[in-house]
Structures are given as C-alpha cells and as structure tokens.
Amino acid sequence: MELQTLTYIVVGFTFAVYIGIAIWARAGSTKEFYVAGGGIHPIANGMATGADWMSAASFISMAGLIGFSYQGYGGSVFLLGWTGGYVLLAMCLAPYLRKFGKFTVPEFIGDRYYSNTAKVVAVVCLILASVTYVIGQMKGIGVAFSRFLETSYEAGLTAGMIIVFIYAVLGGMKGITYTQIAQYVVLIFAYTIPAVFISLELTGNPIPQLGLGSTLLSDGTYVLDKLNQVVTELGFAEYTTSTRGSTLNMFVYTMSLMIGTAGLPHVIIRFFTVPSVKAARQSAGWALVFIAILYTTAPAVAGMARLNLMSTIEPTPGNYLAYDDRPQWFKNWEKTGLLQYEDKNEDGLIQYSADKKTNEMVKIDNDILVLANPEIARLPNWVIALVAAGGLAAALSTAAGLLLAISSAISHDLLKGIIRPDISEKAELNASRIAMAFTVLAAGYLGFNPPDFAAGTVALAFGLAASSIFPAIMLGIFYKRMNTAGAVAGMLSGIGVTLFYVFQHKGIMFVQSTSFLGDLDPNWFFGIEPNAFGAVGALVNFIVAFVVCKMTAEPPKHVQDLVDFIRAPHGAGDATSH
User: Fold this and answer.
1) DSSP 3-state assignment of 443?
2) Residue 491 has pLDDT above 90, yes or no
3) How far, in Å, CA of 507 to CA of 63, rounded?
4) What is the DSSP letter of 525?
5) What is the domain partition of the chain in residue ranges?
6) What is the distance between the alpha carbons of residues 367 and 399, in angstroms, rounded to a whole number?
7) Residue 104: φ, ψ to 5°
8) Which distant-in-sequence residues (6+ apart) come within 8 Å of 461 by Cβ?
C-alpha cells in the first residue's frame, strides 16, 4: 500500500478513537469537566500526564535540537530541565495542591492570597504562558498534516482544530484524560519503534539507549566516535562537545526549564484529577516513568538520525551525492521548504559543510529530523505512517491540555470566581464549553497568523511560567507569612522583567536557522540567553515578593492556618474532600 493512503488510514483511525473516547467520557458536571471527577487512577493519570507533557516540542523538536543545535551532549539541558521539573513538581507542589483540593491554579492563588486581584494576575500570567505554548502545538499540527497528508498548512491546521474542538469541548478534562492515554500509546510506539529498527540496523542492538554506546556493524567503530569523525571532517564541532555558552548560561537554562515545568498550569492541573494526596505523588512518579521512555530514547534518535542523514549526503569522505540522484525523502521534504539545496559551484553535487560560503545545504530544519528519520533509514511505510500519527498525537494532546487550562481560567476563575459567583453548575458548564470554543478559535488564529516570535514560543512559555506562577505557588505553600501585596508584586515584576528581556533581544532569539539561537550576543545579561531568562525572572519574583511582604501586613490567621493544613502530613495518604 502506498505511503499516503496508509498514512490517511492510520491517522484517520487514531482520530476516530480520540473522538469515540470523548463521546464515551462526556463530562456531565463541572467537576468532571475541570478535574475529570477527581477519581483518575495514578497510573492512568501518569500516562495522561506524559502525553500532556510530551508536546510537539518533545516529540518533533527535542531530538533535532540535540542532533544539530547543541552539538550533542549540550542538548542534555532539555532532558535535565524537563525531567527535573517533574521531580520538583512531585516533591514540592503536587501533593500540597491536591490536598488544597481546588480545580485550578488561579483558584489556589486567589484563596491562598485571599484576593481577587491575585487571582486575576494569576489568570493573566496563565493565559500568557499557555497561549505562547499552544502556538507551537498548532504549528506542529499544521506542519505534520501538510507533509504527511499532502495538504496545505492551512488545511492541516483546520483539521487539527476540528479534532481538538470535538473531544476537548465535549469531554472536558474527563474526555481529555482518557484521550491522552490513547495518545500516549500512539506517540510512544511511534517514537520507539523506528528507534529500535534503526538501532538494530546500525548496531545489531535492539535497545536504542544501549545502541548509542555500541559499535557499528559496518566497521566496528563506536557510534559516537563515528559521528564525531563524520561531523569534524565537514568542519563542524565534535558531536560530543557542548559549545553552548558559559557554565552559568547552561545552569540558568536548566533551572528555567525545570521551574517552568513545575509552574505550567496545564501540567499542574493534572494532579487535581486523582482521588488523594498519596495518589498525586504516585501519579507524578508514574509520569516520570512514562516520560523517561521517550526522553532516554531521544539522544539515540538524535545521534543515529544525524549519522544517517550525513552519510546519505556524503556516503564516503569527499564523495558527495549528486543532486539528481537524491532519494525520495529528500524530494518530499524539499516540497515543505524545510530542506533547501543551492548549487553554489554548479557541479550538481550536494556539498554539505560548516563553511557557510561553500555549504550547499542552505537549510536543514531541526524539526524534520524525527519525522524524516524513518524515511532516511528506508523503514517500512507503516512505520512512517505511525510516526505521522505520533507527531500529531503529541501536538494534539498538549494543545487540548493547554486549551482546557485557558478556558478554565476564563470560565471558572473569572466568571464563577469573580464576575458571577451565583452562577448555576449547568450554566457554568455551558460557559466553560463556550470559552473552550473561543479558545480553540483564538489558538487557531494564532496558528494561522503566528507572531514574529513563534519559533521560540515553547521556551518563552517556560520562562513566563517560571517567572510568574511557580514562585507564587512555592511561597504560598512553604511561607505562610507571604501576603497578597508580596505575591502580586512578585508575579508582576517577574513576568515583566522576563518579557522585557525577551523582547529586547527577540531579533537574536527567534531565528529560523539550523542553529537554534544564532550566535551568542555580547549584550546578553551575564551571557544568559533570552530563552533561559525565566530563572532570572523567578529570582526577581522571589526577591520582590519577600521585600514587599516584609513591608506590609501579615496574612489573616485563617490563611496561615490554611497553609499549616496544606503542609500537615497527618492523613496525607487518605482521600480528602477538601
């Protein structure tokens, strides 16, 4: 069966499953819409969290970033930051937020800081972080559709919006949770099966994580040694050498990703769906297990895919592939504009090197590495079709979680919490669905008309969450002296500093080249990249919050008692009704 037909069948089947689950799990109450009724099993919630977390950035982009932009080992900043964030979430946030027992992050902040102002600020910060994140998911949906289903970008994005609209609006968190379990199964098989095939083909070892450290069947050379040899012959830095700025920059980048992960509302809200505090801890642990399956595979995918790519273009040193003899995968990706060749010396050969003057591969987009990997390795069509379904599952699952977080902030925190506290549950549920519908349309608009910073939206989202939401939650749990004035001042200053720094350097930060951030800029604050500045914004948030807190009145006693209750270990293993 030809690839396009098979891809339509596989992707169409997965979409039918998602919609069927949404109809089966239709939310009948606000609790089911916001937190899936609060009765999701920790293992199921861990799997749904894994799908919610592993967005288009993890599935499509991460291996490309490791493979190209950060010279291999330097890409560990993403693995360490993103997985470390879940450890932080499991230890410091998830159990306490579950014991608090509300539906949303702004609701916690509003109650903890006894202020509608604090709640509104939290809603604004949540929307800013979530909207910037969702743009990347919408673009991922459009790109994956346009390549594998051979439609226009606009048609692909429209189809994705319709699918998300149906199962997110219909099912709410209940439908999204069970849909994300199915999406996790799809995306993890789509990611690991090609990796197993390629590892087996190159090294004879079916476990990609071990294959990366094994020897090649072709000449007995270790994979990483061979990759270092190939890239250095073409003038690139050794694959196993990180050249990404200073140690401080790498440390701050890792911290920004870590605390950004722990502060992302669509991730935090997942821990409100389990029945107890103990289940929240278990759920975070299972999420780490399910995420680790993909994240430990990513370095192998990156290294082996780059080796295959470069070996295709230059089979032997100095023996370049003729452009007229380029394989079908090369032609397919040329159509997308994400792979571009320019015959600079008019010899008809594809000369690829680090020298910009002679390099004829003028564009190899990072994001094609995972999606093109099965085609480059000449794997069966069903594997290529599965990867297409996996990429779409990753983008759709995260988009749904983000859209629910945004719509919940609007309908539950603003409408129910502030504007119309007396609204009935049925009216609130209808308002939630209307808010979700408008959110889907707004996200689609941003996907069709992305702002000029679209290439860095995911990293920016982490910075915004790290600099605003995370410190407010941490201080709310662990510092009962923190008051309204301190929390509001901290959130506004943290997110304000981060946005100012990002937009000051947006011309450097958001580039559409094969080098993720372009060259290091001497005007960066202590050499810290804009994408990493969220950690600095968080530090500003903490400092301002402490200073303002000390200058203003203590919180009321009932609020301080609430903090003691949240942190009390007694009964932590029991289901609570609070």
Assistant:
1) helix
2) yes
3) 25
4) G
5) 3-306+378-567
6) 18
7) -135, 165
8) 129, 130, 132, 133, 136, 260, 264
Contacts 24+ apart (CB under 8 A), 557-563: 559/112, 559/113, 559/114, 559/480, 560/480, 560/481, 562/111, 562/112, 563/112, 563/476, 563/477, 563/480
CATH of domain 3-306+378-567: 1.20.1730.10
CA distance 215 to 228: 14
- What is d(CA 99, CA 110) in angstroms, rounded to the nearest whole number? 16
Residue the block writes with tokens 């000051």 = 504
Give Cα 375 distance to the centre of its chain.
25
CB 299 within 8 A of CB 212: yes
Q: Are 71 and 239 in contact (CB under 8 A)?
A: yes
Measured on CA atoms in the order 241, 57, 86, 468, is the torsion positive or negative? positive
Model confidence over 151-203: pLDDT tens digits?
Answer: 777 787 887 788 777 767 766 777 788 888 998 999 999 999 999 999 999 99
Long-range contact set of residues 157-162: C-beta below 8 Å, sequence gap at least 24: 157/444, 157/447, 157/448, 158/444, 160/392, 160/395, 160/396, 160/399, 161/440, 161/441, 161/443, 161/444, 161/447
Q: Is the pTM of this model over 0.85?
A: no
Contact between residue 117 and residue 329 where contact means Cβ atoms under 8 Å apart: no
Strand partners, 363: 340
